[in-house]
Each structure stands twice: as structure tokens, then as C-alpha cells.
Design brief:
CATH architecture of the largest domain: Alpha-Beta Barrel
InterPro entries: GH, GH30_C, Glyco_hydro_30, Glyco_hydro_30_TIM-barrel
Distance between the termini: 58 Å
EC number: 3.2.1.45
Keywords: Glycosidase, Hydrolase, Lipid metabolism, Signal, Sphingolipid metabolism
GO molecular function: glucosylceramidase activity; hexosyltransferase activity; signaling receptor binding
Shape: globular
Bound molecules: 2-acetamido-2-deoxy-beta-D-glucopyranose
Largest sheet: 9 strands, mixed
Number of domains: 2
Number of strands: 22
Enzyme class: hydrolase
Strand order of the largest sheet: 4-3-22-19-18-17-5-20-21
Helix content: 25-40%
Length: about 550
């Protein structure tokens, strides 16, 4: 395949570079400054503050157990001309709320930290934010007692939490499982899927939590989307769950039917599925990274399968409106992989969106999304997987502010380049960053310690929350001065209730005074602390 060699070349380049990728660990805050602004009793507005713990070297987590967990209530609309500023920072503030006033005067003075917000300039509509219901997420939750499990679920899905609304669910096992399985592990080929059945993991670790999430979310449905890792061995050219294996041509239709069967079973069990991706990381079959369970797809074969099998199977099913997302792989494959899949209009017409992953993002300037968006304006781009600690499988680093910053920076950069949402990988992992079938330990926003019965909310949880909590589905990104002064990143939205949201990431080691300049409101002066993530909210009426 012409593209396979190009793919191999790219992957070889990455293979060398992956080893030198390290995290930004500069200027660790040595002082373990205690958080004085927030005490452990409930604040006036019902906000239960974070019980902060310094875990060493200035790294801080919020500690929760079956009795207590911090909350973040929905902000009430302030009186006209006021704004609300939420700050979380490396020093230990978490969703710390302050308010201030817009000033009609002093508009003429200019400062290098002015952010001009322009709601007349409108870009993409946001779909949302979330994480993945992996086997490992459910397994880890179940090591805690029921009350602690409920507090984790509330932290992610309730109005007192960060209000996730787009969540991924693996179709079968992934590397974040404790065994390898598919929904049809028949010893002999089973072309008509007579032995198709969901696994015990679906009933123990996924479906009950997904249903609980649906109940906790008061404002509309959760958009669940499914992704496959590996196919049954009998469908694959290499007869292995991992490695250089593809779907045998004679089973193209069976593999499409397998997706439809998954949709049917989940609906039957009370979990409606919004979408599917065509395959998680199809490039891994060529790279063979760490024995990752996968199915390989060249762009040309993907195009054929979409056109002949998957697209028609979904349209003919009971769920013809299921959203189909292509790629579901590293962004450095943009735009060529999608160009090649879309060359055939009959494949392109079945695809609603393009799914990208954050790994190796440094190799992909966000202009790649701009190019893709310009070429295919009616296909949304959604970030469907991200996690820290994947380099050399370093796993969990408790309290790493830098990993939180990594999330915010990627989110802001992506959303400033037409991406419509951002979905994290495992929502809950153990102290090591597992369990995983192939020892590729990674990090997650919530870590459980089954020995103490505690769970820890990492800075990544708050960074994601500064976006997910305040930028609901159907918000529209609006014009704003972007990426000011190197280590400050900014983006802005108008919410469906017409409120304005400005998110500011300050990676500088110094406090800065910034100003929001809005032609209707005037000027708001903001104290933005060093190493902080901030969300500003205001309304015109
Ligand atoms: C699952 O498969 C992987 C290869 O993808 C292998 O390395 C691992 O040992 C298997 N795990 C179990 C529990 O069988
Ligand atoms: C594409 O499909 C053809 C026909 O089934 C097969 O020979 C080829 O190996 C496939 N290539 C890839 C990379 O999947
Ligand atoms: C991407 O597109 C946005 C919106 O059109 C634009 O502001 C930005 O400068 C572009 N970025 C790149 C890197 O091309």
C-alpha cells in the first residue's frame, strides 16, 4: 500500500523521538505553602473545599474518602457588570471563587496582557468533555466502598462536579483490562455472530456506572461513543489480539455487524449510544507498540470497509443516526489519512466526525486541524483520548501541576483550532496507574488508594474541570486575542444562556495583571496568579 510505507516512515521517526519526550519539570515550587484561603468547612455558597495534601516537592492532591469530597456548585449569575473568576493554581487553590466589576472607563490605556473578547466573531459549536469507562476505571472504583464510589461519580457527572457529557466506552477489552477478550471468542469462525455476547466486565464495571452517570447528569443526555480495540481472533489475519493484524476480507461485513450488535446490546441494557469510532489507533498494528490490542487499517481499506460495510450496516440498523467518527488516532495523521479515506464520496458520506488523540501532539501544529476543517467544514473534529505518564510508562505522579497544565494547554490549543471537545482516557486508576494487561501504566485525574480507602483528585481533574464545568455543550467559541506572551494561553466561548466564558492558562512563574476588554462591558482587571488555570464568567444582561 502506498500509504503503508509513509506510515512506517512516520512511525520510525516517532519511535526515535518518543524516548526524548520528557515533561516540563522546570521550577518546582519548593515551599509547601499551605492553602489558607480555604478551610475544610463548607463555604457559604455550598462549596465544599478541597482537603489539600502536600505529597512532596510542592505537589498537591485533594483528598476524598467515603465521608468527604470537595464540590464545586454551579455559579449563580451575578448582577450586571460583575464578573466571576475561578482560580486553581500550583500553590493549592482549587476552584477558588472571587468576583469583580467591569469598569466602563480606562479603555484607552493599553497593556500587553489585554484580552479583547469579540462575541460577534463566532467559530465552532462545542460538543463537550469527558473520559472513558474502561474496565480499569470500574475495577478501581469497586475497590472503594459504595459511598466513595458515589462521590467519584458525582465529582465527574453531577452539578456539584465537573459535569462531563461525552464519554467513551471500549467495545470489548483494551490494554486497561485484566484479561484479553472480545464479544465473540468462538474457537471457530462465527460469521453470523451466533456466539456474540457482552462480557461480565460490561455488567460489573461499565453499564452500572454509565447508568449512574446518566442519572447524575440533569442537563440532557450523555453522549456515549464506543471504540473497538481488537477483533475476535478468527476474524484477524494474524490470529492475535495485537500486532500486525487486519480484518480478513471475508469478515468485513461480520465486523460491521459486530458494531451493530454492540449498539443493540447496550440499548437493550439501558445505555443509548450516541456514536462509534471506526477503530482505536489503527496505526498501532504497524507500529506494534507494546503489544497493544488492535486492528490495523490502511486508509484505503478503511475507505472500502466504510463504504461497503460499516456505513450501510449502521444505516440499516435500528440506530441509523449513530454518529460515525473516523481516524481515532494520532493527530499527525491529519490530514492525509482522512484525505485518503474521503477520496471516495461514498465512504465520506457516512462519516460525521474525525477523532484525534493527543499523544505526540508536539509533532502536529494545530494548523493541521485548520487544514482539515477548511477542507471538510461539515465534519467535526473531536479529541477522543489523552493521558499523561505514557512516556516510558511512568504511570502516576501524584499532585503534578505540570501534567494538569499539559491538559489545559492541549485543550486550549485544540479548541482554538476548530476541535469541538476533549475526552480523557481512564477516569480512575490505581496508585501505580493500572491495572493494564501490558504494564503500560499511565496517569489519570482520579487515583484510588484501596489500602487507605481514599481517592485523590489530581491537578488534571481541576484543569479539565475549568473547561468542562463552565463550557457546556452548544457553547460557541468566540473571537479573542490568542496565546499572549508565550506562556499564557487564552480561549473564549459564548454559552447557550449567552454568558461569556474566558479560560486563561498562566504557565509563567509570576503573577500577572490581565484585563478583559469587551466593547459592551468595558474593562475587567484580573489578578492572575503564577502557574494557574482560570475561568472568567460574565453576562451581558
Ligand atoms: C493480553 O494480550 C497481551 C498482548 O496484547 C499480552 O501481552 C498479555 O499477556 C495478555 N494478557 C493476559 C492477561 O492474557
Ligand atoms: C488491504 O486489503 C487487502 C485485501 O484484503 C489486503 O491484501 C491488504 O493486506 C490490506 N492492507 C492493509 C494494510 O490492511
Ligand atoms: C487556525 O484557525 C484559527 C481560526 O480560524 C486561527 O485563529 C488560527 O490562527 C489558525 N491557526 C493556525 C496555526 O493556523
Amino acid at each position: 500500500m502506498q500509504h503503508t510505507s509513509l506510515l512506517l516512515l512516520v512511525l520510525l521517526l516517532i519511535g526515535n523521538s518518543i524516548l526524548v519526550l520528557t515533561e516540563d519539570k522546570t521550577s518546582e515550587d519548593k515551599k509547601s505553602s499551605e492553602n489558607k484561603q480555604q478551610s475544610s468547612k463548607e463555604l457559604e455558597d455550598g462549596h465544599k473545599p478541597c482537603k489539600i495534601r502536600d505529597v512532596g516537592e510542592g505537589r498537591k492532591v485533594c483528598v476524598c474518602n467515603s465521608e468527604y469530597c470537595d464540590t464545586i456548585p454551579r455559579p449563580k449569575k451575578p448582577s450586571k457588570s460583575k464578573f466571576i473568576l475561578y482560580t486553581s493554581n500550583k500553590q493549592g487553590l482549587r476552584f477558588h471563587k472571587t468576583t469583580g466589576q467591569f469598569n466602563k472607563k480606562h479603555r484607552s490605556k493599553k497593556s500587553e496582557y489585554d484580552i479583547h473578547v469579540n462575541p460577534d466573531q463566532k467559530f465552532q459549536k462545542v460538543i463537550g468533555w469527558g473520559g472513558a469507562f474502561t474496565d480499569s476505571t470500574g475495577i478501581n472504583m469497586k475497590t472503594l466502598d459504595k459511598k466513595a464510589q458515589d462521590l467519584i461519580m458525582k465529582s465527574y457527572f453531577s452539578e456539584e462536579g465537573i459535569e462531563y457529557n461525552v464519554c467513551r466506552v471500549p467495545i470489548g477489552s483494551t490494554d486497561f483490562s485484566v484479561r484479553n477478550y472480545t464479544y465473540d471468542d468462538s474457537k471457530t469462525p462465527d460469521k453470523n455472530l451466533e456466539h456474540f455476547a457482552l462480557a461480565p466486565e460490561d455488567f460489573d464495571y461499565k453499564i452500572p456506572f454509565m447508568k449512574q452517570a446518566m442519572e447524575l447528569r440533569k442537563n440532557g443526555p450523555i453522549k456515549f461513543f464506543g471504540s473497538t480495540w481488537t477483533a475476535p481472533l478468527w476474524m484477524k489475519t494474524n490470529n492475535k489480539y495485537y500486532g500486525n493484524g487486519f480484518i480478513k476480507k471475508e469478515f468485513y461485513q461480520t465486523w460491521a455487524d459486530y458494531f451493530v450488535r454492540f449498539l443493540e446490546e447496550y440499548y437493550k441494557n439501558g445505555v443509548p449510544i450516541w456514536g462509534i469510532t471506526t477503530q482505536n489507533e489503527p496505526s498501532m498494528a504497524v507500529l506494534g507498540l507494546k503489544d497493544l490490542p488492535t486492528v490495523g487499517w490502511s486508509s484505503t481499506n478503511m475507505s472500502i470497509w466504510l463504504r461497503e460495510n460499516l456505513g450501510p450496516a449502521i444505516k440499516k440498523s435500528k440506530y441509523p443516526n449513530t454518529v460515525i467518527m473516523a481516524l481515532d488516532d494520532q493527530k499527525l495523521f491529519l490530514p492525509w489519512y482522512i484525505n485518503s479515506v474521503f477520496e471516495d464520496q461514498n465512504a465520506k458520506k457516512y462519516v460525521d466526525g474525525i477523532a484525534i488523540h493527543w499523544y505526540l501532539g508536539v509533532f502536529t501544529p494545530c494548523s493541521a486541524f485548520n487544514i482539515t476543517h477548511t477542507k471538510y467544514p461539515d465534519k467535526f473534529i473531536l479529541s477522543t483520548e489523552a493521558c499523561s505518564g505514557f512516556q516510558t510508562s511512568s504511570g502516576v505522579l501524584l499532585g503534578s501541576w505540570e501534567r494538569g497544565e499539559g491538559y489545559s494547554k492541549d485543550i486550549i490549543e485544540n479548541l482554538n483550532c476548530w476541535v469541538v471537545g476533549w475526552v480523557d482516557w481512564n477516569m480512575v486508576l490505581d496508585m501505580k496507574g493500572g491495572p493494564t494487561t501490558i504494564a503500560n501504566f499511565v496517569d489519570a485525574p482520579i487515583i484510588v488508594d484501596k489500602k487507605s480507602g481514599e481517592f485523590y483528585k489530581q491537578p488534571m481533574y481541576y484543569h479539565l474541570g475549568h473547561h468542562s464545568k463552565f463550557v457546556p455543550e452548544n457553547s460557541v467559541r468566540i473571537g479573542v486575542t490568542q496565546r499572549i506572551c508565550g506562556r499564557i494561553w487564552v480561549t473564549a466561548y459564548q454559552k447557550p444562556d449567552r454568558g461569556i466564558v474566558v479560560v486563561i492558562l498562566n504557565k509563567k512563574d509570576e503573577d500577572v495583571t490581565m484585563r478583559i476588554v469587551d466593547k459592551t462591558m468595558g474593562v475587567a482587571t484580573l489578578k492572575i496568579s503564577k502557574r494557574s488555570i482560570n475561568t472568567v464568567l460574565y453576562w451581558y444582561d
